[in-house]
Specification:
two-stranded antiparallel ribbon; mainly alpha; 29 helices; globular
């Protein structure tokens, strides 16, 4: 065996050695003095140590290995078939669909849970990916279409789950505990049920190895007679089944589906068969390590942490270390961009969007609910008393929409990837962590303190991404670093929130993305930043156009590439920090608004920037009004409503753009 071929297995061996060492360190004190017979045979009820080992510790260890194996294999299938390093059970909406289905069952169909929880979660996972399949099959599983549709589906399901939880918190309080991913076991029944399903799916995946190898040829494979559409559909079905079975058993442990395949590529696995096996084994070892550390920490501190959240805390640094050590191959770049047709009258379209924004603002100011919960238009003294409440939150919502849209547009143009946005690249998560740190450092933080903390957190994330981009110009590496950092920071925030510290309660309410606590000072400050940011981005429109054509073209037109990239990243961090301080990190506008502007015929230059800003403002204005009135007298978070409002529109425009691309 050549040295390069052996290198992946040396890394996998080292990872498993670490997993076994940590397992031994954690479990040996509990197993000391017990015979093998007492561990694997039914113990006496009087022997508490044997009962604990037989019914809890060993089944949990087996479940960690099985689930990690399944999620690693699933993620590798997704990423290979869709040719995108961001493809995973999380980004395709499978886990979010399963969580939504479980929440619906808990509220309205509890009898199903009494019969089989697997049915509910599997139905949700397959239903979510069924939406992706319906779009993907019609457009020959175009990778960009599949990924974008999956992300919209996942964000939409997550938004609905959050909405249901806000409205029924006394029924769904335990839903997010399950969503955190728990490997606790009371016997061997779940292991016995899950194992044959995972083995069957793994065999199917190995049988598809030759067909999957053909996919690396791209369009040439179809010329050779390969049925590309059928191969993709079959592989995706296996990947979905692996995810659905795992999620139904232990909840959401989604980071492994992203981390394990990236580790397999980073350690030098080249052939698809090697990658499938390496990703599966890496996922199993990584989840074992995480779960053993969680158990050890729980025994020492008495605090039980969700394994799924801690997986990101431990897995992300390991993934980042491997990727810094080696350049990730760029063979799976996002391809298949839909053809965008520019409108012949961009000014007319921009004027129409501006009129729609003005109409939405007038409705938000003058229309509301009366004391009997009926719709009414307010005027006179009633309106005067409401203006100090309605105007600041409307201004803040519009400003946040503009800021997030501008940030998303900058990041998409800088990276050349349609999936880049403040949410995807971890900038919003960095803002959240920076704000949390400021809350712990300053007793009574002002807006300036929060802005500094949020900007610092977002800036650190983008500085890390910038350093990675200087080391390797592969767009995939830049994106996967952002997603990994986002997962790490989000998990850190979740762990801090789970600690119950009173100072974290403010962050919890802010993360819901609500504008009903906005003060006039915050609103008009955000508006000033939005106007200044809009002018700044417009001034950068021409060099952005040159930069989009490549470094050589940008340099030929006098663009200082290093300084320009640093300027764009800094500006994007500032815009994101200001916006997320107002509406939280759940808005989805940074990803959606630039696409909406493109799909309606504003794909280039200043018109695209203005269109993105107007779409962001329009979405947030409408979301703020709906959140204020739809569930009266209670209010729904604006960022959450923006996701629910914009998701279907975004999906429809993606499908429409894909149809145009296929026709051409």
């Amino acid at each position: 065996m050549k040295r390069k071929d052996a290198q992946p297995w040396l890394w996998i061996g080292a990872l498993w050695a670490a997993a076994l060492a940590i397992t031994a360190l954690n479990l040996l004190p509990s197993l000391e003095g017990l015979s093998l017979g007492s561990l694997f045979s039914t113990p006496s009820p009087d022997d508490s140590r044997s009962v604990l080992a037989h019914y809890s510790l060993l089944p949990r260890l087996a479940m960690a290995a099985i689930c990690g194996f399944a999620l690693g294999l699933s993620g590798m299938l997704f990423q290979h078939v869709l040719r995108n390093p961001l493809a995973s059970p999380s980004t395709l909406g499978i886990e979010a669909g399963a969580q939504l289905s479980l929440g619906v069952a808990m509220l309205w169909f509890p009898a199903i849970l009494g019969w089989s929880r697997d049915i509910s979660t599997a139905f949700g996972g397959f239903a979510a990916v069924g939406i992706v399949f319906a779009v993907g099959w019609k457009y020959r599983f175009n990778p960009v279409v599949v990924i974008l549709t999956g992300m919209v589906t996942g964000l939409y399901c997550t938004a609905v789950v959050t909405l249901l939880t806000l409205m029924n918190d006394h029924y769904l309080a335990g839903l997010f505990i399950w969503g955190g991913g728990s490997l606790n076991q009371n016997d061997w029944r779940q292991v016995a049920t899950l194992t044959p399903k995972i083995i069957g799916c793994s065999v199917l995946a190995l049988l598809l190895v030759k067909q999957l190898s053909v996919l690396t040829l791209g369009d040439a494979a179809q010329a050779l007679g390969a049925k590309i559409q059928s191969i993709r559909a079959g592989a995706l079905f296996v990947a979905v089944a692996l995810t659905a079975f795992t999620v139904s058993a232990v909840g959401i442990i989604g980071f492994l589906g992203l981390a394990a395949p990236a580790i397999a590529r980073a350690i030098g696995a080249r052939r698809i068969a090697t990658r499938l096996i390496a990703a599966s084994l890496a996922g199993a070892a990584l989840l074992i390590i995480v779960d053993q550390l969680v158990q050890f920490y729980g025994a020492v501190s008495g605090v039980s942490l969700p394994t799924g959240a801690v997986t990101a805390v431990i897995g992300a640094p390991f993934l980042l270390f491997l990727m810094l050590r080696r350049n990730v191959p760029n063979a799976i770049a996002v391809q298949g961009k839909a053809l965008i047709v520019a409108t012949p009258r961009p000014r007319l379209l921009l004027a129409l969007l501006l009129l729609l924004l003005a109409a939405a603002a007038l409705v938000a100011i003058f229309v509301g609910r009366d004391i009997n919960a009926g719709w009414a238009s307010q005027a006179g003294e009633t309106l005067q008393s409401l203006l100090p409440w309605r105007v600041p939150r409307l201004v803040a919502a519009i400003s946040a929409g503009v800021l997030l849209a501008l940030s998303g547009s900058l990041l998409q143009r800088l990276t050349g990837n349609a999936l880049a946005s403040p949410e995807v690249l971890g900038v919003s998560a960095g803002t959240a962590l920076g704000l949390l740190c400021m809350l712990f450092l300053v007793g009574q933080p002002t807006y300036a303190h929060r802005l500094i903390g949020g900007f610092s957190g977002a800036g650190v994330v983008l500085m890390i991404l910038f350093a990675v981009n200087r080391r390797s110009h592969a767009g995939n590496q830049f994106l996967i670093f952002g997603v990994s950092l986002g997962a790490l920071l989000t998990a850190l925030v979740s762990v801090i929130l789970a600690s119950g510290d009173p100072r974290a309660l403010f962050l919890l309410s802010w993360m819901a993305g609500s504008t009903y606590g906005v003060t006039p000072l915050l609103a008009w400050t955000s508006a000033a930043f939005a106007i200044a940011g809009l002018f700044a981005v417009i001034m950068l429109a021409r060099p952005l156009q040159h930069f989009a054509l490549g470094d050589i073209s940008a340099h030929a037109h006098g663009v200082d590439i290093k300084r320009f990239r640093a300027l764009i990243l800094s500006l994007s961090a500032l815009l994101t920090a200001i916006a997320t301080l107002v509406v939280g990190p759940l808005s989805f506008v940074g990803l959606m608004a630039p696409h909406l502007a493109q799909r309606v015929g504003l794909p280039r230059g200043t018109t695209h920037i203005l269109g993105s800003a107007l779409f962001g403002a329009l979405l947030m204005a409408a979301a703020d009004f709906i959140g204020r009135t739809i569930y009266f007298p209670w209010q729904l978070p604006t960022g959450l409503v923006a996701t629910l409002l914009g998701g279907p529109i975004f999906a429809a425009l993606i499908i429409r753009g894909s149809r145009q691309s296929m026709q051409h």
